[in-house]
Specification:
The protein is of the alpha/beta class. It has 17 helices and 6 strands. It binds NADP nicotinamide-adenine-dinucleotide phosphate.
Length: 464
Amino acid sequence: MQNQYWLYLIYLIASMSFIVGLKMLSGPKTARMGNFLAAAGMTLAILGTIFLHKNQEGHLIGNYGWIFGAIAIGTIGGWLSAKKVEMTAMPQMVSLFNGMGGACAGLISIVEYSHIQNEASIGITITILLGLIIGSVSFSGSIIAYLKLQEIMKKTFRLPAQNIFTIALLLMILGMLIMTIMLPSMFHMIILLLLSLAYGILFVLPIGGADMPVVISLLNSFTGLAAAFGGFLYDNQVMLTGGILVGSAGTLLTILMCNAMNRSLLNVIFGSFGGGNVAEGADNGFVGTIKSTTPSDVAILMKYAQNVIIVPGYGLAVAQAQHIIHELEELLEKEGVNVRYAIHPVAGRMPGHMNVLLAESNVSYDKLVEMEQINEDFSKTDVVFVVGANDVVNPAARNNPASPIYGMPILNADKSRTVIVSKRSMGKGYAGIENELFGYPNCLMLFGDAKQSITKVVNELKEL
Ligand code: NAP
C-alpha cells in the first residue's frame, strides 16, 4: 500500500480514538483511559505525518533532527509542568496550554501567508486569515486569563466605554480582514495580527475571576476552530477532526457552565461578576446569630445520624482534605450511617474539580451524586457537612434578586435538619458575597482549616 493510504488509515484510527476518548472522559471510571486513548491516537497521527507524509514533489518531510528536538523540548516542558502543578492551579495551566495551541494556529497562518500571499485563491487566503485571527485572539486572551488566575495580574480592568471599544475593535478586524483579502500584503497581515492580539487582551481583561473558567472554555473552543482551519488549509483530516472536536466540546462546556450558573454567555462576557465589585443590596448578610461548634459535637451528631451528605467545595481542595474526608466517610459507614457527596457543577475552580479531587482519595464513584439527583434529599437528611464550600450553598441565589449569584441553582443544604460548615473564618467565597446560611438556626460553624478540623472529628469518632 502507498504511504498516502497508510496515512489515511492512521488518520481514521486517530480520529476514532479522539471521539471514543472524548466520550470516555464524560465518566470518572473511564476518564483516565479515555485521555490515554486520545493521546495515543494523537501520537500515532503525529508520527504518521512525520514519517509518511509526502509533499507535492513526492519528498518525505525530513528535518527529523529539528522536529524531534522541538518535540523533546515541548514534551519535557509539558510533562514537568503537569507533574508539578497543584490541583488548585489547574485552570491556569489549562489556560496556558490553550494559549500555546492558539499561538501554533496563528504561527501556521503567518508562515503559510508569507509563502502564498499573492498566489493563493480567495478561499485559501480566508482560511489562513481566519486561522490567524482566531488563533491570535485565543493566544493573547489565554495568556491574560493565565496571568489573572495566577494572580500575577491582580486587578480587573474595564475601560470607560469598554463594550463600545471592543465592538469597534471587532469592526476594525473585519475591515482589515477584507482589506488583506483584497490587497494582500505582509504589512496588512501584521496589522490584522496586532488587532487580533489586542482584541484577545481587551476581551478577557474586564472579566471577573469566577467567570474565568467559562472564558477559558470559550477560548479553548476558539483554539479548536483555529486548528480546524489549519486542517482545511493542509487538507489534513485528523487536524480537521481534532479541531472540530475541541471547538464543539469547548462550546458545549461553555454552555453547560453558563447553565449551571444560570447566566447567559453575553452576561459572562459583558458583565463583571466575581470581580469583587459587589453592588449595594447584593448581600442579605446574616440573619440570626453565628453559632460555632466543636469537633466532638460534630462527631456525636454524625455518629447518631441516619443520613449524612457531604458538600465539598473549593476549600476542600485548598486544605487537601480529600483523604481525611474519605476516612471520615468510611468510619461513618461502619457505624451504619448512609454517607453521600453532593456535587455542584461549579464547585471548586474548574469543571469536575470535586470529582477529580475525591477520585484521588478513592472515594467510590457511586457515592458522588450530582445536584439534580440529590437536591430533593436534603430535606430528609439529618446532617449536611459543608466542607470548604460557600457560594454553591448560598440561599441568596434563591431569595435575593440583587445578589450576583441570584438564579444560580444551589445545593439545598439549608433544608436539612442540621448543617455543619467547615471553614477557616467568615471569609467569603469566589462571588465575594456573604452567605446568609451561616446565620440560619440549623447551621453550626466548625471553624479551622478543613483538614485539621476533619482530622479532629475523625479522632473524636474513634474515641466514641
Ligand atoms: P467558594 O464559594 O469559592 O468558597 C470556598 C470557601 O472555602 C471559602 O469561603 C473559604 O472560606 C473556604 N476555605 C478556603 N480555604 C479553606 C481551608 N483551608 N479550609 C477550610 N475552608 C477553606 O467555593 P465553592 O462553594 O466551591 O464555589 C465555587 C465558586 O467558584 C462559585 O462561585 C463558582 O461559580 C466559582 N467558580 C467555579 C468554577 C468551576 O468551574 N468549578 C471555576 C471558577 C469559579 P474561609 O476563607 O473562611 O476559609
